[in-house]
Design goal:
Family: Belongs to the type III pantothenate kinase family.
Shape: globular
Active site: 100 (proton acceptor)
Enzyme class: transferase
Number of strands: 9
Bound molecules: adenosine-5'-triphosphate, pantothenoic acid, potassium ion
Binding site for substrate: 91, 98-101, 177
Helix content: 25-40%
Oligomer: single chain
Number of helices: 7
CATH superfamily of the domain at 2-78: ATPase, nucleotide binding domain
Protein name: Type III pantothenate kinase
């Protein structure tokens, strides 16, 4: 049996098809319609979607695909399970915790025991603390890289993404508006994550997300490209048995 796992974030959709040779992909929401669904769903008996956005469009599209196929079931989760055995929530309202944060913690746990710092550099940058005993010990949410820049473009009159300026992708002080904003946003992200790593040296960092590759390289850490999908895969057996 093969399963199609989808991680529907606020910016993009990522997927993994679990076969003996798993395949991965990612796209913008606007590109979903033109995907080759026939080959993507070939041999797939279950589709499992974790969604943090209000992605009615994706849901409708998948429901249409499932309706025209026999033996293919759609499972949609938009909040953490409150009572997954072996995981202890700290939110008084666990359903308010982003399902991507929860899954990234489950995914990281697959790779390593001990105290973990799960860092997802996506649309937002989130950091979550997972104890050795799988207790969620809280976390942080701050704007991601693109959103940080966007806040400046939108809320000031003269901070403008001039078309004739170029971002060098570095951390040095900027010499035009675009570089000042871009390098500033990068430094803010790096300094934020580093300060937490410094305060919790016993926690192993796991960095994932669209900006995670850059962040991990800058911090000299490994990059884990698919922690949310790893978490979905972990969940599969236990979750499906409840359906
Ligand atoms: N091709 C791309 N399209 C969009 N964002 C990109 C791209 N490449 C890198 N990024 C970066 O990835 C970040 C978005 O992360 P990601 O792709 O993980 O989105 P997401 O899964 O929607 O995020 P989240 O799960 O937090 O909602 C943006 O801040 C952006 O800077
Ligand atoms: C913080 C984001 C946007 C990160 O993708 C997501 O996990 C989310 O919408 N969370 C809900 C709020 C919370 O986690 O407390
Ligand atoms: K502006």
């Amino acid at each position: 049996m093969s399963v199609l796992l989808l991680d529907a974030g606020n910016t993009r959709v990522k997927w993994k098809k679990t076969t003996s040779a798993p395949t991965f992909g990612r796209c913008e929401y606007a590109e979903l319609q033109s995907l080759d669904w026939d080959s993507l769903l070939d041999g797939v008996e279950r589709i499992l979607v974790a969604c943090v956005g209000n992605q009615e469009f994706l849901r409708e599209l998948l429901q249409q695909q499932v309706a025209i196929r026999h033996n293919c079931v759609l499972h949609w989760i938009d909040q953490p399970l409150p009572d997954l055995s072996g995981f202890e929530h700290c939110y008084p309202h666990p359903e308010r915790l982003g399902v991507d944060r929860w899954l990234a913690m489950l995914g990281a746990r697959q790779h390593r025991p001990g105290d973990l710092l799960v860092i997802d550099a996506g649309t937002a940058l989130t950091i979550d603390f997972l104890s050795t005993a799988n207790h969620h010990d809280g976390g942080f949410i701050v704007p991601g890289l693109a959103m940080t820049r966007q806040a400046l473009w939108q809320n000031t009159r003269r901070v403008i993404p001039w078309q004739d300026e170029q971002d060098d992708g570095l951390l040095a002080p900027g010499r035009d508006t675009l570089q000042c904003v871009s390098a500033g946003a990068r430094r803010q992200q790096v300094a934020f994550v580093r300060s937490i790593m410094d305060d919790y040296p016993g926690h192993s960092p796991f960095i994932t997300g669209g900006d995670g590759d850059w962040l991990a390289t800058t911090l000299g850490q490994p990059y884990w490209p698919e922690l949310v999908l790893d978490g979905l895969e972990t969940l599969c057996a236990g979750y499906f048995s409840r359906c």
